[in-house]
Design the sequence.
């Protein structure tokens, strides 16, 4: 057993420089590779997360601007429709006014024409009455013998 322990002691003593080199290698790995790599990964993570958050912020800002633009567009459309409706109402009112003027002018012409027709009819009646009285007296004069006098009603 002593021999085994002596061999183990020799092996441990022979492996001490290897252990020291291994420990130095681990420490140098930690100092030279691991820490800069961790810093680099942390910075990359930070930049990536920052870029993602910045992209989300830009998307949110774009959505807000889109909403504002849509509201402005909606308001502009409403104003255009209101202006169009007002123009249509104005044109309809102007058309109705023009139609009413034409209607009144036509009614005045109709009334003037009716009055003219009534005056013509009255003039024609008086002419007919006078000519009928003349004709009746001529007819009576032609039909009655020469010595008979005409009744007074007929001459009127």
Sequence:
């Amino acid at each position: 057993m002593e021999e085994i322990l002596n061999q183990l002691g020799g092996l441990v003593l022979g492996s001490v420089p290897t252990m020291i080199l291994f420990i130095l290698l681990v420490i140098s790995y930690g100092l030279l590779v691991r820490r800069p790599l961790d810093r680099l990964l942390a910075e990359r993570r930070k930049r990536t997360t920052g870029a993602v958050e910045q992209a989300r912020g830009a998307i949110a800002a774009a959505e807000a601007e889109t909403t504002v633009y849509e509201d402005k567009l909606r308001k502009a459309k409403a104003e255009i429709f209101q202006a169009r409706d007002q123009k249509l109402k104005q044109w309809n009112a102007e058309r109705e006014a023009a139609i009413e003027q034409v209607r009144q002018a036509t009614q005045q012409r109709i009334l003037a024409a009716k009055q003219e027709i009534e005056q013509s009819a009255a003039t024609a009646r008086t002419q007919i009455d006078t000519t009928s009285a003349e004709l009746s007296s001529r007819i009576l004069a032609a039909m009655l013998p020469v010595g008979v006098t005409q009744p007074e009603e007929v001459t009127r």
Remarks:
- DSSP finds two helices and no strands in the chain.
- Residues 9 and 70 are 85 Å apart (CA to CA).
- Helices lie at 2-143, 152-155.
